[in-house]
Amino acid sequence: MDVLGSLGDGFWIAITWQNMALALLGCFLGTVMGALPGLGPSNGVAILIPLAFTLGLPATPAMILLTSVYFGAMYGGRISSILLNIPGDEPAMMTCLDGYPMAQQGRAGEALALSGVASFVGAFLSTWGLVFLAPQLVKLALLFGPAEYFALFTLAFATLGGISSSNQAKSAFAAALGVGIAMVGVDGQTGVPRFTFGEVHLYDGIDFLVAIVGLFALSEVFVFLEHRGKETAEGKAATVGIGRITPSMSVLRKCTPTMLRGSALGFVAGVLPGAGASLGSFIAYSFEKKLVDREGTFGKGDPRGVAAPEAGNNAAAGGALVPMLALGVPGSGTTAVLLAMLLALNITPGPLLFQQNPDVVWGLIAALFIANFMLLAMNIPMVGMFVRVLLVPPRILMPIVAMVSFVGIYGISGSSFDLLVMVVFGLLGWVLRKLDVPLVPIILGVLLGNQMEANLRRALTISDGEWGILFASPLALVLWAIAIIGFILPIVVGGVMRRKMRGGLAD
Amino acid sequence: MRFSLDSRGLFAAGALAGAMLAGAMPADRALAFEPENPECIAPANPGGGWDFTCRQVGKTLQDLGLVDGTVQVTNIAGGGGGVAFAEVVNKRADDNDLIVAASSATSTRLAQGAYPGNTMDQVRWLASVGADYGIIAVAKDSPIATLPELMDQIKADPKSVSIAGGSAVGGWDHLKVLIAAQAAGIDDVRTIKYVAFDGGGEAVTQLLAGSVQAFTGDASEAKGFVDSGDIKVIAVLAPERLEGDFASFPTAAEQGLDVVGANWRGFYAPGNMSDEAYDFWVESIGSVYDSDEWKSIMAQNGLAPLDLRGPEFEAFVAESVSRINGLSKEIGLIQ
Amino acid sequence: MSDRVFGGIGLALAVFFIWQATQIQLSFISDPVGPRTFPIIVGVVLGLASLVILIRPDAAPDWPRATRLLEIAVAAAVMVAYALLLPELGFVIATALAATYLTWRLGTVPLWSFVVGIAISLGIYAVFALALGLSLARGPLGF
């Protein structure tokens, strides 16, 4: 088999003491940076590029180091989601929904170990996907024109209704607020400033990291300030049980189909430029909830609600390498940084990369396999260490969280303005939590809003303002059908049914 | 989003060659100025043309031993370079260690007043390091084979052709098409359908996907796809044919449309930079341009020669700003 | 009641957003949709959602007493001061002060808070500046 032969050559390139040490270092640093709020995979990789240069690494080892950081950060993001209810980076946002309730029930260790396994499954399967399906997947990416992207993003928003349980109006409000925030900045299509109020710092828009760290991490600090004095009882409850630090076989067995489905969905989302890991974890979670959540346990600490998004976001990380390597198009912030690194090393990604630089490509892929096993080996034993974070009393833990959040943002942007925006988001997050408004749709809106608008406008430019183009291709129709039949109709019909039933009772 | 990356020690082998080159040069070059922490701002995210300019020139500066240590590359994205421009004008006006990557996109936006409150006189223009000539391309299986054919089709049925590019409406990629259309006798250039994508890479992808019929961009952006034969270049907007891989593609002038669209690449520096520092940077970037290492980088990336330094470059930018300003008014992009 | 106020504010925000969207300048050559349409759609969704919240409110949450609201407001003010003073004082000093304040207000005795604050600041500095090499704010003392 040709592909396997190339992969074998890749292992020959990858397995040297130096490369192994780099992969180990990258995995460790990536996990730590992923866990710290404010430092996500893209910043993590960007921060370590100087290190790669300092060491004077040639192309293959440099890429091995940086992709290990990338995958490590995707693993690490879940840790703070589960332990603190603060996503370490944006794709780990969905892991909060069931991971944190599990931790509150004294199952933190189990949640961490399970999510570690799910991360491994997602990353491992997507690396195989990269090996065998890259050329076919490029064709898949080419099926997505602007109209199809718009339908895909609409589908993502339609699934929101299935996620946040109680009040649909509030999750619609949150999503619209997020998209509205994304509108701030210079319009990418015509170059005119929008909602900037003459403030040049806003021309660039509001960075989603600033929003996510403010909404989740700082608002958590405010929540603790609000409840100070009362937390003794709750604090004790949280530290009562760290629980077992390995998942039971029965839970693993129950979650296996979930992980496989999550991996597949996440991988496809990763392959599409512009969708990326956040969409991967989001769709993996919402489809899984739709599919298996009959008892309504999702959102209350269901292990499958941890396994699905973790498999999804790690699979998306592997998928995102497909368009980067094969088309030279970065599908996410992280792959944009990796692409820049390749260019700086005088390697042009694109259709010919697999032929022109097979050593780089296959060495990289082999290194991904190795990094995956390292991460699994590293993450499962480290669960016992991570959960000890919960033993730190909140009066000390929370100031650390706050200061780390500030540093993470400031260290990248060097901008006090960003910190001020973050404090505003912190207060907003606190008020919205009080009012029971879900925060996840806001982040989704900030992440996807611009892409959604840009693709709508591109589609309508191509069709001369004819809105029919949005429904013109079979693929777009399928996406619309899933959105409407799968997610929007049930909400509408369900609402009508409930009202009728209530009306019937009143008669 | 901003990233701070530097290119310390990149290319160990290159550094060795650089040390040898540096040894060959007169060692007693009297310098009135020596930057302590040389920094290059790329006014966009990593991966774009400005980022490339900063990185490659920074690396060559190091390899040639023209700067001590490393050139820190800082990415300050936003406002099509406007955020970085404002930052340099407002906060770093007397920083002698700083250079900023610029290109035709910078002069286009300055000409159209897209950097609010900023003009080209607020900074000092250093030197150019080459030009990336524009290309117009179609998919490999497109029935269109020449630029006049494309223009004829637009004339006959403007709705049937969508052209994708990596800049916003009114940006450089868009203007190139409009200039060509004017030359081909299309009077109302507003009828031309231009679709703006986030960068040349995405735009080419949509050409391959069949969402659009043509692509406007720079030669370097399309190189990977030209080599693989996925796209067909129908015109190079250069005064004469390019060298290397692009030599087989005809210029627009050969096809009877006298259009030249050069995306020059170069640098500006803060407005209050001292004359000593200004001279240092002009001379250093000039040395980079003259080096063999830079010549091979230019060849690899489809860059054509454009060698303008100091006041000459300043005059060139001024001329280009006023020309684009006039053109934008004529087309109606600005009042 | 809370939701009614919230819905009202949301509605006002939506109106403001739509009004601002109509003020966006148009360039001479524009795409068929233009830069205004999508924000207006978003504003309408925002307004409709707010209206539903206003008409059918959930039960009001337990709002903290005024002293606790003040506590949160002061903490936010400290964070704002931190953001502004960071470039002036340098990372270590500014962070130590802010961390001390937060630790104290979360229920640690003052002296210990000070110790913890300094430890947090130095710890973060060691990890981010020394190990990861991020450029944190440099004050007059160089750290």
Radius of gyration of chain B: 20 Å
Q: Strand portion of chain B, in percent?
A: 15-25%
- Discrete helix count of chain B: 11
**SSE order of chain B, one letter for each helix or strand:** EHEHEHEHEHEHEHEHEEHHH
Number of strands of chain B: 10
Unreliable spans of chain C are: none
Categorize the overall geometry of chain C: flat
The quaternary state of the protein chains shown equals heterotrimer
**Beta-strand residue percentage of chain C:** under 5%
Please describe what this structure looks like.
Chain A has helices spanning 2-14, 17-35, 41-54, 59-84, 95-104, 108-143, 146-158, 160-163, 168-183, 208-226, 231-240, 249-271, 276-292, 303-327, 333-344, 353-356, 358-387, 394-413, 416-434, 440-462, 474-506; strands spanning 185-186, 193-194. Chain A has 507 residues and is mainly α. Chain A has one domain. In chain A, a hairpin with a 6-residue loop joins β1 and β2 (193-194). Chain B folds into two domains: 2-131 and 263-331, Bordetella uptake gene, domain 1 (D-Maltodextrin-Binding Protein, domain 2), CATH 3.40.190; 133-255, Periplasmic binding protein-like II (D-Maltodextrin-Binding Protein, domain 2, 3-Layer(aba) Sandwich). Chain B has helices at 12-24, 49-63, 82-90, 104-111, 147-156, 172-183, 200-209, 219-227, 275-290, 292-300, 311-331; strands at residues 2-6, 39-42, 72-76, 98-103, 123-139, 162-165, 193-196, 214-218, 231-237, 262-270. In chain B, strands 1, 2, 3, 4, 5, 6, 7, 8, 9 and 10 form a ten-stranded mixed β-sheet that branches. The two termini of chain B are 32 Å apart. Chain C is mainly α and 143 residues long. Chain C is built from five helices and no strands. Chain C has helices spanning 2-22, 34-55, 66-89, 91-105, 110-131. In chain C, α4 (91-105) packs across α5 (110-131). At the A-C interface, α3, α9, α10, α18 and α19 of A face α1, α2, α3, α4 and α5 of C.
Keywords, please?
heterotrimer, A: 507 residues, mainly alpha, 2 strands, 1% strand, globular, C: 143 residues
Put the structure in a nutshell:
The complex is a heterotrimer of chains A (507), B (335) and C (143). Chain A has helices at 2-14, 17-35, 41-54, 59-84, 95-104, 108-143, 146-158, 160-163, 168-183, 208-226, 231-240, 249-271, 276-292, 303-327, 333-344, 353-356, 358-387, 394-413, 416-434, 440-462, 474-506, and strands spanning 185-186, 193-194.
